[in-house]
Amino acid sequence: MIRRFAFVTLLLLTTSCRRQQPLSRNLNVENKVAMRTVSLYYESPDLLLAPERRNLPLPQNPAAALDLVMRELLKGSANAAVPRLLPADTTIRGAYLLPEGTAFVDLGGPTLTQGWTTGSHQELMAIYSGVQTVTANFVEAKRVRVLVNGEPAETLAGHVSLSRALTPVPSMVVR
Amino acid sequence: MKRFFPLLILAAASILLAQAPNQATLRTPTGDRLVTITRVNGQTLFAADEVMAALGGAVSPDATGFKANLNNTIAAFGPDSRFGVVRDELIEMPIAPAIVEGRPYVPLQFFQGFLGKAADLEVSWDPVSRFLTVRPTQHTIIGVQLSVANVQGVSKVVITLSGPTDYTITKEQSAYTIRFKTQIRAPFAAQSYDDPYVAKATFSASDLRLDLKAPDAGADAYKLENPFRIVLDFHKVAPGPSTLPTIVIPTRPVETPGIHTIVIDPGHGGKEVGAIGPGGMMEKDATLTLCRKLADNLETRLRTRVILTRTDDSVVTLDQRTAIANQYKADLFLSVHMNAAVVKGAHGSETYFLSLEASDELARKAAEVENAAGRPLPPAGSSDLKLILWDLAQQEYLAESSRFAQAVQEEMNRATGVQNRGVKQAPFKVLVGATMPAALVEVAFITNPEEEAKLKTDDFQKMIIDALTTAIQRYKIDYETRIGVLRPAAPAAASK
Q1: Which end of chain B is more exposed for a tag (fewer CB within 10 A), N or C?
Q2: Which residues of chain A neighbour B446 with C-beta distances below 8 Å?
Q3: Facing residue for B357 by CB, picked from A118, A163, A169
């Protein structure tokens, strides 16, 4: 009995003292921050998405940088005349990238949670400004799946289906 | 010892039925047994084969998914759709079934939808004790309320129920009988109405009989949820060629090819108000006003059957809108919306059909299923195809939807002279499941003060209605000419 107790105790000690494996062997490299020019897409006066260049300090790891770029997009255009596309109280709860090329952008905020009232055009612009920004800045991201409050959502405002990942639509972007 | 024996048996049984984390106890009238469960997106899914086997049924794979069979009633379901099909009715599930190690797992709602029809069983789930209980249906009494109102020439009978129930509708010489599958609590025994179509409503046992004043009235029936309602619309039958049979629900009025039934979908409704104009006009109100008038105009000018997905300020889910069109086997679906933009000065109309991006992936999935099965896709209309699915439905009609959208946009541009923002494609949820050519028109920007003001005027509304009617007429003639129903010379006869 004493021997068994000693064995279990030793096992627990061994387990608790084991060092946690790093998430990546190249974590230092991936987390190295460098200035990078990104293109953030906002609506232009001709009702298309137009890029706005901005220099941001970003980690080289795209999975880590994605979240920061989406938060930067949500801050809005540097040009005060360019209106916001998503409701002002929208938050980015998280953004992550799966190895097979699907980026997930998890949106939150009171308006999106309670039901956003807008028309098709604004809803399309709001969603595809995110899709275009993600895919234009991260070659690893082929498509974007939009979640609301961490869960799949039918639509943001009753029009555009969010049941699948969305790919960029070139005809929505200024040439 | 003897008197403890039953307790020992019970104790042994409880040990045998001790639930592992991925197990639940299936309780049926014949006893308890363990079944495997899994969790997907916060939902508990049950191993369909284990549950069905315990009830004396079976689950087997087919080309597009799986089939559950109990008492020779078959339900089809698959991992790509949260809709199953039983006896040509949809079983709506919160999420699609999942395949885990080749075995299908389904949400509780699948069993609730299927077992009631296959064996008059009801199913409940206790997530705390993890008991899935299947028992003979306790026939509860359903409260019934009835209202009859005539709106713009259509007599609308709304039967509001305190809970969902199955029902059948049968047509007699000059009456319709709604037979409920559960006991009902009638609001009255009989009542007469001062209505153009409905003379009297009579409750008897589980039947509601509606006597009509006009025996040749056309009727459409559909159901709505939250609360559960059965709606019957009585209207005059559009005079058509003498060879056409009288409209009898729920069958298609005419089986000859062509555009005979058109579903018009007024966007939004109820608490889903849609976009709001600077003057306070709500998209849900603007679309309903326009669509009611459009329906009248279409019936008069095109002599077609027109169904509205909503005729009042009620919530109709996006899935229900296409489900209504599919249930009526509509030949054309047009969803009507008002646009919104943050850019000042945005104006004009836009017409959309489903984007290829949304459907390409589905087409690929269907092809994978086909290749895996080594045999072609089942013919259109079979329950198998319904499974491949609800989400894939519109793929087959994209070319026709494009033509239809083009006709709509051209007529809108011609009539209003507004900026041509052209035909576009987008993954609009309301178009995804339509099994017919389908388009969505954004009539005008309600966020533009000028266009909002115009939308309130009868003249502008009439102009839009005429444009949409002409577009639908153009597409109808074009389509019927291409399939050989009309001779190429016929379009001249269809001018206004």
Answers
A1: N
A2: 119
A3: A169
B6 within a domain of the structure (yes/no) = no
Q: Mean pLDDT of all residues in chain B?
A: 80
Q: Do B358 and A160 count as a contact with CB atoms less than 8 A apart?
A: no
From residue A35, alpha-carbon distances to A71, A140, B127, B469, B483 in Å are 16, 19, 51, 57, 61
Q: State whether B287 and B435 are in the same domain.
A: yes
pLDDT digits (tens, 9 = 90+) for B36-83: 999 998 899 999 999 999 999 999 987 667 889 998 888 888 887 777
Domain range for residue B71? 17-136
State yes or no: cis peptide before B227, omega within 30 of 0.
Answer: yes
Residue A172's φ and ψ, nearest 5 degrees, are -90, -5
CA distance B259 to chain A (A): 26
The answer on B487 and B355 residing in a single domain is yes
pLDDT confidence of B138, banded at 50, 70, 90?
A: confident
The residue out of B80, B106, B136 marking a domain boundary is B136
Q: Which residue ranges make up each domain of chain A?
A: 26-172
Are B187 and B328 part of one and the same domain?
A: no
First to last CA, chain A: 78
- Is the CB of residue B63 less than 8 Å from the CB of residue B384? yes
Measured CA to CA, the distance from residue B485 to residue B488 in angstroms comes to 9
- The region of weakest confidence among A137-141, B109-113, B164-168, B350-354 is B164-168
Closest by Cβ to A84, choosing from B338, B342, B357: B342
pLDDT attached to residue A31 = 64
- pLDDT tens for B241-255 read 333 223 333 334 445
Which residue on chain A is closest to B347 by alpha carbon? A47
pLDDT class for B381, splitting at 50, 70, 90?
A: very low
Q: Does B241 fall in a domain?
A: no
Chain B interface residues (partner A, CB cutoff 8 A): 41-42, 267-268, 271-276, 283, 318, 337-343, 345-346, 350, 352, 355, 357-358, 361, 391, 421, 424-430, 432, 440, 442, 445-447
Asked whether residue B166 falls in the same domain as residue B287, the answer is no
Which residues in chain B touch residue A45, judged by CB atoms under 8 angstroms apart? 343, 345
Among B92, B336, B342, B390, the strongest candidate for a mutation testing the A interface, having the largest count of A CBs within 10 A, is B342
| ipTM surpasses cut 0.90 | no
Which of A119, A125, A167 is facing B442, going by the closest CB pair? A119
- Return the residue matching tokens 């068994």: A4
Pair of tokens at residue B346: 């945005």
* Mean pLDDT computed over B394-420: 86
